[in-house]
Amino acid sequence: MELDEIYLDQQEHVDKSIEALKKEFTTIRSGAVSTSILDSVKVDYYGTPTALNQVATVLASDATTINVSPWEKNLLKDIERAISEANIGVNPNNNGESIQLYFPPMTSEQRAENAKQAKVMGEKSKVAIRNIRKDANAKIKKLEKAKEITEDESKKAHDEVQKITDAGVASVETLVKAKEAELLKI
């Protein structure tokens, strides 16, 4: 394995960690509701757990309401059960045609709690990035032990790995700050 491959591999994994964090952030509710809060909901569709948006139209009709219209009316009860079990903080209202989810406006305590949650997610992402650094450094040490690279090359490689790590951590911090600002803005 060459040093460039190690850097590329590390960068790829760091990018994936950052993307995972962005995706995780979509599950946190900010001021207006987002249909992504239902992304993790799976409905039993003829024995197969299926994403809610694969069996129904999911729309945010206003800042506090999400409307779920199943494509097949016989799925209404299953969708209602799946949403209840997902424990997203609201009870589904079934009107026989569709399901409405009414989210009350967020309190400042909820906003602060969600901002704290975003910070925790950011910390987990930083830990993942540091673990990626540890793996890259281990690969470099292995190359040095096998005499495939010199001590100087090893030192330069460790510095490069640290640069990639620092950039990844800085990206995470920027994302967390932006998410916190979004969550605390009323």
Describe the protein.
This protein has helices at 3-25, 76-86, 108-145, 151-184; strands at 42-45, 48-51, 56-62, 65-70, 93-94, 99-102. The chain is α+β, with helices and mostly antiparallel strands. It folds into 2 domains: 3-26 and 107-184, Ribosome-recycling factor (Topoisomerase I, Chain A, domain 4, Orthogonal Bundle); 35-102, Gyrase A, domain 2 (2-Layer Sandwich). The strands form 2 sheets. Strands 3-4-6-5 form a 4-stranded antiparallel beta sheet, covered by helices on one side. α1 (3-25) packs antiparallel against α3 and α1 runs parallel beside α4. The protein starts with a helix and ends with a helix.
Quick tags:
alpha+beta; single chain; four-stranded antiparallel beta sheet; 186 residues; two-stranded antiparallel sheet; Topoisomerase I, Chain A, domain 4; Gyrase A, domain 2
CATH H-level name of the largest domain... which superfamily? Ribosome-recycling factor
CATH architecture type of the largest domain: Orthogonal Bundle
Individual helix count: 4
C-alpha end-to-end distance: 51 Å
Largest sheet: 4 strands, antiparallel
In round numbers, the mean pLDDT is: 90
Structural class: alpha+beta
Identify the overall geometry: elongated
Order of helices and strands: HEEEEHEEHH
DSSP strand (E) fraction? Answer: 5-15%
State the domain count: 2
- Radius of gyration (CA) equals 22 Å
What CATH first level of the largest domain would be assigned? Mainly Alpha
Instruction: Indicate the low-confidence ranges by residue numbers.
Output: none
* CATH topology tier name of the largest domain: Topoisomerase I, Chain A, domain 4
Q: How is the largest sheet built, in terms of strand order?
A: 3-4-6-5
